[in-house]
Write a structure and sequence with these properties.
two-stranded antiparallel sheet
């Protein structure tokens, strides 16, 4: 995931979070971008449409089809 993302202009980083939930594992991906324009160039004109590669979709039980964008207001 990260090597391909690092080549995308405007990409600033990724965090992958994991939580065990019984027999399942929940993953949450947080990406950081330079701007909404950079996100649109990566995702599409609909920046809230989730970008989930076909290979990932094949192994996931479910995934969010829409994403939420938030602005970083503090980073220590």
């Amino acid at each position: 995931m990260a090597p391909q993302l690092k080549r995308i202009p405007g990409f600033r980083g990724v965090i992958l979070l994991r939580r065990d939930r019984g027999d399942l594992v929940e993953l949450q991906v947080l990406t950081r971008w330079e701007s909404m324009d950079a996100i649109r160039k990566f995702a599409s004109d609909d920046p809230e449409l989730a970008v989930v590669e076909a290979e990932a979709q094949a192994v996931l039980v479910e995934f969010d089809r829409r994403v939420t964008h938030l602005d970083v207001v503090f980073d220590a």
